[in-house]
Amino acid sequence: MNEGEEGRRYDATPFLPSRRTGLAGLRRAAAECHGCPLYEDATQTVFGAGDPSARVLLLGEQPGDQEDRQGRPFVGPAGHVLDRALADAGVDPGHAYVTNAVKHFEFTVRPGRKRRIHKSPTLREMTACRPWLLAELRLVSREVVVALGATAGKALLGSGFRVTEQRGALLPWPGLDGETAEDGIAGLLATIHPSAVLRADDRDAVYDGLVADLRIVADVLRRG
User: Fold this and answer.
1) CA proximity to 135, closest of 221, 8, 47, 198
2) Exposed, middle or buried, 217 (CB in 10 Å: 0-12/13-18/19+)?
């Protein structure tokens, strides 16, 4: 990927619709986003998916290989783990909205290989893509936001976020840029990204931890 000229500012804001729109309008506009160089190598923009009236919004890091090919978030192996964990925790995956902090797949290809290997997005790329996330957050009627992994947590809570220290507890909703915490939002839950289960030596134990965290979401929804 070409990082562009020295000092170039990455920002998706100019690509957002000029008029108020719904999620479908945002999705169409995001398909043309060139706010950072990630679009150059990615197959397509992978915008969020799900019911705009969903009570739960799940935020991941960025699309993976299968998501980039299919154009939908969480359709690869990690997405299958997430759906199973939600169901085991008592949260209907079909009643959630899923998206990522960054909307294009960033990857590397080793010399002589064809497989595209995931690379974590930089802070610069996350900042560039933040306007899309904020627009989604304003349009989805979520009661609980779940940050899946360190990148998602930093996108919402800042660079000081540590998933190992803050996971598994319902945190106060931080509010959107320039706004105070919003009424009607029960809070933010941080947990691991489901891909961590796939990388773990003891997958059963790590999966059980993910389910235990998501049960907190189920409890909040039942009380609501």
Assistant:
1) 47
2) buried
Q: pLDDT value at position 9?
A: 83
Determine the topology of domain 13-223 in CATH.
Answer: Uracil-DNA Glycosylase, subunit E (3.40.470)
pLDDT at 2 (0 to 100): 45
pLDDT digits (tens, 9 = 90+) for 178-200: 655 566 688 999 999 999 999 99
Distance CA 205, CA 184 (A): 34
Contacts of 26 (CB under 8 A, 6+ apart): 16, 17, 47, 132, 135, 136, 139
For the chain, how long is the longest CA-to-CA vector? 54
**Closest of 171, 162, 125, 164 to residue 144, by C-alpha:** 171
Strands 49-50 vs 170-171: parallel, antiparallel or unpaired:
unpaired
Alpha helix segments (H runs only) across the chain: 23-30, 65-70, 77-89, 123-139, 150-157, 163-166, 195-199, 203-223
Compute the distance between CA of residue 199 and CA of residue 211 in angstroms, rounded to an integer.
16
Q: Which helix (H) or strand (E) holds 116?
A: strand 116-118
- Say if residue 220's pLDDT is above 80: yes
DSSP string, 20-52: ---HHHHHHHHTT--SSGGGGTSSS----EE-T
pLDDT digits (tens, 9 = 90+) for 52-97: 999 999 999 999 999 999 999 999 999 999 999 999 999 999 999 9
For the chain, domain boundaries:
13-223
Q: Residue 103, SS3?
A: coil
